[in-house]
Amino acid sequence: MTQLERQDRKQDDKDSPKKNRRSYLRDFVKNADGAYVYTGKMWHADPALRRRMLVKLWALQAGMLLSVILPGFVTTAGLQNTFYVILPYMLWLISDIALTYTLGSMTFGGNPLRDYIYERSVARYAFRTLLPLTGAALTAAGLLVFLLRDGSGEGAVVCLICSAVQIAASVMAGRCRVADLWKS
Question: What pLDDT is recorded for position 149?
C-alpha cells in the first residue's frame, strides 16, 4: 500500500460517522466569536415530571448509599478476610458510586439534555440499577455461606438488612422508567 493510499484511508476513517468515545464532539461548531456551540440532538422532559422523578430517585439513592456504607462501618465478621464476601461488597460499593454519578449527570445535565449526556446517563440508568442489586445479593449470599461454615454472626444481621434495603431500592429505581420521561 502506498503512502497516498494510506492517507486516503485515514481521511475516509475521519469522515465516516462511526461512533466512538469522542464522537459527540462532532456536534460542536465554532461560531463567529470563536466559541463552540452545541448543535446536536436535545432531549426534553416536562419540568414538573422531571423534578418529581429526580426527587424520588435521589431519595432512593440516599437509601442505597446508606445501605452500602453502613456494613463497612459495622464490624461484620464476613467482611474481614473472607474474599467471597469482600469481592461482592466491593462490586456493590463501586456500582452504587457509579449509579450516583449517573444520577448526578442526569440531574445536573439540565433540561433539555444534550444527546451525549442522555446516552451516558438516562439511557444507561435502568441497567446500572442492576449492578448494585447484584452486588448486594452476592454479598448476602457470601455472608450466608460464611455463616453456614461456622463463621461468627457478629454484625451479620446489619449487613443482611442493608443488602435487603439495597435490593428493594434498586428494584424500585429500576422500575421508574426514567427514559420514558424524555422526548427528543
Answer: 83
Calculate ∠ Cα 16-127-50, nearest 5°.
90
Cβ atoms of 46 and 115 within 8 Å: the answer is no
- Predicted confidence at residue 181, as pLDDT, reads 84
| Domain spanning 42-183, CATH class | mainly alpha
State residue 31's pLDDT score: 80
Cα–Cα dist 139/136, whole Å: 5
**Strand duo 42-45 + 113-114: pairing:** antiparallel
Which residues in the chain land under pLDDT 70? 1-27, 77-78
> Distance between CA 156 and CA 146 in Å, rounded?
10
Whether 136 contacts 167, CB under 8 Å: yes
- Residues with Cβ within 8 Å of 183's Cβ and at least 6 positions away in sequence, in order, are 43, 44, 45
Evaluate whether 59 touches 70 at the Cβ level (below 8 Å). Answer: no
Residue carrying the nine cell digits 437509601? 63
The domain limits of the chain are: 3-38, 42-183
Between CA 115 and CA 23 the distance in angstroms is 11
Dihedrals phi, psi of 91, to nearest 5 degrees: -60, -45
**Which of 127, 123, 107 minimizes the C-alpha distance to 115?**
123
State how far the Cα of 127 lies from the Cα of 13, in Å rounded to an integer.
31
